[in-house]
Amino acid sequence: MTTEEIKQPTLYQSDPLAVIAEMGMHLSLKMLDEMLLIRHFETRGEQSYQQGKVWGFYHSYIGQEAVQTGIVNALGADKNYYATTYRCHALALLLGMTPEEGMAELFGKQTGIALGRGGSMHMYTKNMYGGSGIVGGQWPLGAGLAFSLKYRGIKDEVAVVFGGDGSVPQGTFHETMNLIKLWNLPLIVVVENNGISMGTQLERTIANPPIVENMSKAYGIKSYSVDGMQLPLVYDLFKKIKEEVQQTCQPIMVEVLCYRYKGHSISDAATYRTKEELERIKKLDPIESFKQLLKNHCGFTDQEYETRSEVQKQRVVKAVVEADLAPFPDVHTLEEGVIIP
Amino acid sequence: MREISIREAIREAIDEALAKDDSVFILGEEVAQYNGAYKITKGLLEKYGEKRVIDTPIVEGGFTGLAIGAALTGLRPIVEFMSFNFSFVAFDQIVSNALKIHYMSGGRFKVPIVFRGPNGAAARVSCQHSHNVEPLYAHLPGCIVLAPSTPYDSKGLLKAAIFNDNPVFFLENEMIYNIKGEVPDHDYTVEIGKAKVIEEGVDLTLISYSRMIYFCREVVEDFKRKGIFIELIDLRTIKPLDVGTIVTSVRKTHRAVVVEEGHKYAGISAEVISLIQEFCFDDLDAPVQRVCQMETPLPYSPPLEAETIPNPARIKKVIEEVLIGVK
Amino acid sequence: MPIIVTMPALSPTMDEGIITSWVVKVGDKVLDGSPICEIATDKSTVEFQAIDGGYIRKILVPAGKGAKVNAPIAIITKTLDEEFSIPTFEEEKKVEEGVSANEKKIEGEQKSNSLNVIQFSPVPPSKKIRSTIKPSVAASPLAKKIAKEKGLDLRSVKGSGPSGRIISKDLANAPLLQLFGGEQRSIEFPDGTFDEVPLSPMRKVIGERLQASKMTIPHYVISQSVEADKMMAFRSELKDLGIHVSFNDCIIKATALALQKHPEINMGYDSKKNVMIQFKTVDISLAVSIPDGLITPILWQANCMSLKEISMEAKRLVMKAKEGKLEPFEYQGGSFTISNLGMFGITSFEAVINPPQGAILAVGGIIETPISKNGKIVSGHRLNLSISLDHRVIDGAAGALFLNTLKFLLENPTSLVL
What we know:
Chain A is built from eleven helices and seven strands. Helix content of chain A is 47%, strand content 9%. Chain B has two domains: 2-183, Thiamin diphosphate (ThDP)-binding fold, Pyr/PP domains (Rossmann fold); 196-322, 3-Layer(aba) Sandwich (Rossmann fold). The longest helix of chain B is centred in the first third of the chain and has 15 residues, at 6-20. Chain A binds chain B through residues 81, 83, 112-118, 122, 124, 129-134, 137, 139-145, 147-148, 151-152, 171-172, 175-176, 178-179, 182, 337-340, and chain B through 25, 51, 56-57, 59, 61-75, 92-93, 96-97, 101-110, 141-144, 164-166, 240.
């Protein structure tokens, strides 16, 4: 099977212009800024990695920005519970981590969001519960977040857990889907299908695609699929989903189709994609396409775009400088905070 | 004071915790409607309802991860493993999440979770159902490991564990669930991290925990009749170890033997003995010895099982070797 | 600000990469994220993109060449006319150090045909640790601790632990450890173990002076035995009168008088100018032992001092020497040195000349010994004098005559009261 031959799900449809009109310029530009921030952060984060200032693994979100930006804005950033995989920088930035805290964490400095102890794969904020290093390790954790909301009778918030197509075959996925339906937990399961798990194409890892459309039937969970490269569609869908979850107190599974430009992580030379395919993917750039929508229908100009992009870029450049200057954690603090006294 | 069994003591601890704090709940296989595979949770569903006493499907990874997620948001789950052997199915959730998130998040989130259930050999349940998990979990930083041997300690330590903010492994033993002992009527807890000298002596220090304590008691009585007085220490908490109590005793008696139900290689006794030689080197009149389970998976056949785990005869023999030349 | 594009680390193990080709040239405009070159790493060849767009102004590493990670490979500026300078990268230090080594080699080869002055170092300690001749005593740590605290000898204790190990109970009747004999071969020290002790400033000075003295001065020694009985009686008489002089004081006085009579002994050698020195005053240096070394305070014009004055001055100088309070004018100089080891009961010894002086007198102790007198053997007391002389300055005959005068004066101590 080639990429074209894999059965595609029925995608959620909506009129992007109507959505943008409803969002309004203020929110639209906020989301554009957020996507730009993520793009610049990941770009410079990777550059820092290549300069030897960031180590270990680096999983870039470049290309997928519209997914989490749309979702967090639709659901609300200051409440709800979120958990994701090791590809977690974007979600943390959307949920309150400053670029300074993020860059410092990547650099292993004491001013990092996790005091330098977590690194790239383990970022946390007030309502973000990781950042998870083990593929599929976050699925049951997400169920626990939803469980907690229900247990405490909190009805106006939801729990969201993200995972890639690569984490769907993991046993924990099945365990979690079964439990959340059995116990009616308010969990939104988001499968970010970027077509590849590490270096292995979808057709070689998933037996019966489309993933969510087919698997949700086995559990009796309602599902949606959406093109994750189009910010307005993602935003619109998730606003709808939040209401549904709150009203029905039932979980929902969503497959978001997207692409990542870079390799799985930096060490990856991405030889598994042909050049032509990479070019094709680039044309679908979510930031570029959102910008076009705003240009064509809202009087947004290239000039304004450049200005906004430059502002976000400078935020990240500043964060890199600060991270460079920030101190490493004092080794005397190494054994602190292992056990709570 | 009343006399109750360890089983009842554990139940009372859970009951009192559920009553005291709404954020406490218990989940696991058969804990609710079945009243618990070992009847520990008998009557609790009736009293607290299915929101607080939750039956799960057989999905250790799933429900352990779920409980950890809930703990991160501030709830206090008690996870019952029908036997700690099944905790291996949830090993990744325990190790990668429960034991790491507090440190890895820079102290942002706590994981106030208790994992409890029977540990060690039972009655001829064979190789896959007889593991002693304490060395495996105690090896990793970020957790507390408890193994009480009496009703008093079981109730007091479990209550302390439930309200502790760290992940706690509470290791029970099916073979001693029926053992009775006295518990006070008033509310009490037992301090985590404190061992107990349950028999005073001068000739040798014998250190153990959980079911093995009862074998050790037998041996101590035996030696008393011959005029040898052994000091018996019940660890109660395996991690963190009460180094002070152990060292004070060995400095007094100059000889020590450690008995554990688990295997020899890299077991708890290896840790205890290492500490003894570190802190009591000049006070030792003989090398410290240990009595452990043999290096085989635990076989089914009764005489094989009885031989492979420590028993009074094996313990006695080792003590005699350590006492050569004394009396 | 110009943007310096550096070689990226495209994998965690990459140290260096080779630029296989440039897809841009100087003057080209590039956008953010557009490719600029291809880089071959240890694992694969990848396309490398510019993070920030601008104009390519310089390509620092041509296609086909390599560069280390973080080394500059190109320069980009936002505008075509922005100025820039080429950055340096810290690789170039290694060349300069090799040069001077060669120059030193040549100098060394011009030395003479004489034998080399070799230097000496101790043999390194043996790598082998010998097993003890007797097996080491097996005892429990507690038993060893008790034995050490009470000074008990474990070797003669019978152990009742397994394999005869000594346990604490066995020490009830253990004997005390004796001071000497049977030292257990230490496991810590293999044969030939040594410590290095650096030279203190004083030791360095003493060492340099005496090494030079022995190496350059042609020493020879003449000895003479002196009958000391009369000097002992003389001193005893003075003591009865309440006057305390030491044997050394007498020797100093006698030596001063002898030098006065034999000015050819009161000489030295100036090795810088290569001339002999004739001292005009008799200034006697006394060798005094002090912690970590020795020093030589001077009795100036000792021949003009009475015995009593010599005695007081010598005492004063020795005390000051032992307190470390001598001033330079009190120990720099002198024409002749006396060194006395008599207080240790030494029979005789030979001293090293103190340059630029020409001679030094070594005085032994007074020993009771049989003496041959008029064909009969009687008991008496003898004292040995040995004088070391610089043969460039003083010949044997002169030395012998001096020594005989000294002997005469000491054997006729009444002469010392003058």
